[in-house]
Amino acid sequence: MPPLDIMFEALDRCQISVAHFITTLLTHQEYKDHRFVVDLVEHSNEVFNVFLQHPASQDQFTQKSFGVVENMYLQELRCLASEDSSSHFRASSTSTEQLENFSLMTMAREMEAGALRWWGLLGTFFDEGGTADLAGPKDGGGDKSVDNVLEVEDEYWDEVDEINLEGLINGLTGEWNVHPATLTDQHAKCHSAMKLMRKTIITSILMNGWNQKSNVLQSLLGLFLQSAHTPYKVIDTLAHLGISISADTINMAVQSLSKESHSSLQCL
Question: Which top-rank group of organisms is this from (predicted)?
Fold first, then answer.
């Protein structure tokens, strides 16, 4: 490695610190195509890793990096929850068309398109990349607990096998008119569908936390709970958790649907 004394002396003579020199290169338009800037950008990952490993800056740089990543995720969720998105469900003007046109798969795709990095993070949490073994055991029992959970889920799907879930599962996994050759294939598709639903539910709850008008999934779940005669106290508790809309809001939606049905009958 060549001596750096000459470069240090040049910076001292110009009264420019190394930090100022680098920030000037990266922020001034006249240097954007300079070979030094191009080289620095091309090797930014190496520089990033050195900062992360340097004992004097490791903690500070790691904390700063977490802040940048955190803001990136929050910005994606804010955009998903904004009024410009299709996540707002107005209970006072609920229509049967809204209910008929709802698609969990479409919602999941919109979430993924609008918050690609956040969606990828959830995929990592649910081990969609198969990285669980690299991360080490999840608890004192190692991977046995994970295997036990999967076995319980498989037993559940076996028990509800008589219910026609093929359309739902195929819709969520993007496959249609596919008949699984083995029971293992069916279980795999069920696990994939469950992961997709969990990612969608988690994202919906966070979106509702940012903007209570971002409540499509909560509204549909609320209508389902009401149709299943769920006690109002339970519904309102779930509403406070961001999982459902409130009982009063559900009643508004039901009234809107009743008015629509009444108008349709009058037109007949």
Answer: Eukaryota
